[in-house]
Amino acid sequence: MTGLGLVTPAGCDRDTTWSAVRAGRATAAPDPLLHGLPVSLSCRVPELDHPVLRRRGSAHLDPVDRFGLAAVAQALDQAGLDPREWDGGRVAVVTGGGVGGVLTQDKALARLGELGPEFVSPYFLPGYLINMTCANIALRFGVTGPALATSTACASGTTALGVARDLLATGRCDIALVCGADAAVTRLMVTGFSQLGALSDTGSRPFDTARDGFVIAEGAGALVLERPQHAAARSARPLARLIGHAATTDAHHLVAPDPEGRGAERAVRAALADAAVAAEDVGHVNAHGTSTRQNDAVEAAVLRRVFPHRPPVTSAKGALGHTLGASGAVEAALTVLALAEGIVPPTAGLAETDPGAGIDVVSGTARTQSAQVAVSNSFGFGGHNAVAVLALP
């Protein structure tokens, strides 16, 4: 990993986002656009302005594509890569997303109902389809190698990391641009999650005894992955290494995790085996930590079984809310920053750790932790589990 970019409710760049997460600052706020719904709390991205979005063709982009483009542009800048100078055929794009351009869909549906089909914009489908974040990144940065869009619900960003790693390992490309992005803070999506009982209207508090659901959020995370030989040839400074990845499926229920966490546990153990590291080598865990009753209990049980040495655990969703398909990439980037700085950020919103959790969840202030290896978990509706193992260079 040679570059990373972040667009989140805490800020539209890497440094502001990391500052808020490191300080344990929650970003949830009442959302006027959700007025009248059972839940009206959200975590929205602040006003976004980036040079990549001032170019021709940007005016009709859905927010999900705007977030993704800005995050990738940041990551390329940090990596020191200029798309005007690369062989686009040796570059891949892999994106992860849960829902696509749902705001564009909402607008098109409203115009269809109110005015008729002739008033639906021709930009509707290019703004809505779930592959369009991937397509826009490839188009904007001149990528002509593999361009793949993955969708495994809230595991999508971490799934994208694994697909990109495999493309690099098999020699299909030298550089892979990985981006997780979602922009699902719409009245219909919020209603859908609320009907499932997944949302909180008081705040996100992962692993807290009083947790009652997540706060819906939007944003994007991007990472530049390179083959080691390619990075070395251009004297790039690696930020971290993706040394292990695994994915499994629960095959238990469409929206509930396996109560025993068997699929999640297999994913964590397989990722460690892929990385050739022992469980005790893991210095901290970036938990999926959604702040729902079921997910946190199941994940805590998995962590107890796999990591009896009780490494410190954190969840960024206390600060940023749940960015859905973006969360895996966002949290992988945050894990890289935590490793580099030698800390584990606190879990915002956590006041009293659930006594049944039995894990060491960091709260209050960041904890100094000189770790070489960390694990980042992502679990999604449909029983999708994806786990990444990250290490310092």
Automatic annotation (TrEMBL):
Belongs to the thiolase-like superfamily. Beta-ketoacyl-ACP synthases family. Residues 1-392 form the Ketosynthase family 3 (KS3) domain. The keyword Acyltransferase applies. InterPro entries: Beta-ketoacyl_synthase, Ketoacyl_synth_AS, Ketoacyl_synth_C, Ketoacyl_synth_N, PKS_Beta-ketoAc_synthase_dom, Thiolase-like. Pfam families: ketoacyl-synt, Ketoacyl-synt_C. GO terms for biological process: fatty acid biosynthetic process. PROSITE patterns: KS3_1 (PS00606), KS3_2 (PS52004). Keywords: Acyltransferase, Transferase. This is 3-oxoacyl-ACP synthase. SUPFAM superfamilies: Thiolase-like. GO terms for molecular function: 3-oxoacyl-[acyl-carrier-protein] synthase activity. It comes from the Bacteria. Coiled coil: none annotated.
